[in-house]
Design goal:
Bound molecules: ribulose-5-phosphate
Distance between the termini: 34 Å
CATH class of the largest domain: Alpha Beta
Structural class: alpha/beta
Shape: globular
Number of domains: 2
Order of helices and strands: HEHEHEEEHEEHEEHEEEE
Largest sheet: 6 strands, mixed
Helix content: 25-40%
Strand order of the largest sheet: 2-1-3-6-12-13
Length: 230
């Protein structure tokens, strides 16, 4: 296994240890969470771990179902105990950019409904500053696309409409929206930028996940380290 895959797996196994019997669990999206789902599946079978999960995407829903993790909804369980998710970039304050998998809106809703958020990454995701070589994904209502693009250009950025693979045209999110990948360069004040973006009509959600992570497991070549909210 390439070292990064092993690092992701080890981080996911560490994160899964926080899931207690009877928990309502937010199920993040991406490739790292798959290792966590596998570990939860093993515990469900071998130790009779009793949990239900709220998936953040069709991907999470399908994979959780494949691994025998029972699912629930926010309607039934609006308060979650814990959420396990990945991230695209993490700074020293544990602020994150998420959404390269296109699931940012549900991921942020589920994270904000969760008492504890545990993030699993390999060490390539760590950065001094958010936005270095990393665009911010932004989910946009299709009707508003030209307006949002124009406003983002006025902010000095270059929004790129995310194109689908194996389908012509743009990515359509699980919510029926579009994704703009927006390169802001190194972001000095993520909170201020997020506030500016959130008031643009047509922006549904941004990939700036600020003050949401409680614990981050970072898989490295030889070890896994733990970062905690101060
Ligand atoms: C999806 C996400 C993912 O958590 C993020 O893209 C990390 O994915 P991976 O675990 O595959 O590196 O935000 O919207």
């Amino acid at each position: 296994m390439e070292w990064r895959e092993n690092a992701k797996k080890m981080a996911a196994i560490s994160a899964s240890k926080h899931v207690k019997n009877g928990s309502i669990v937010g199920l993040g999206s991406g490739t790292t969470v798959v290792y966590a789902f596998q570990e939860l599946s093993r515990k469900i079978k071998e130790t009779k771990l009793n949990i239900v999960g709220v998936p953040t995407s069709y991907q999470a829903s399908q994979i959780a179902t494949k691994y025998g993790i029972p699912l629930t909804t926010l309607d039934e369980n609006p308060q979650l105990d814990i959420t396990l998710d990945g991230a695209d970039q993490i700074d020293n304050d544990l602020n994150m950019i998420k959404g390269m998998g296109g699931a940012l809106t549900k991921e942020k809703i589920v994270a904000s409904a969760s008492r504890m958020n545990i993030i699993m990454v390999d060490e390539t995701k760590l950065t001094e500053k958010l936005g270095i070589n990393q665009p911010v994904p932004i989910e946009v209502i299709p009707f508003a696309l030209p307006l949002v693009q124009q406003k983002l250009r006025h902010l000095g950025s270059n929004p790129i409409l995310r194109e689908a693979k194996k389908k012509l045209g743009p990515v359509i999110t699980d919510n029926g929206n579009l994704i703009l990948d927006v390169d802001f360069g190194p972001i000095d004040n993520p909170k201020e930028l997020n506030q500016i973006l959130k008031v643009i009509p047509g922006i549904v959600e941004t990939g700036l996940f600020l003050e949401l992570a409680d614990i981050i497991y970072v898989g490295r070549k030889e070890t896994t380290s733990k970062l905690e909210k101060k």
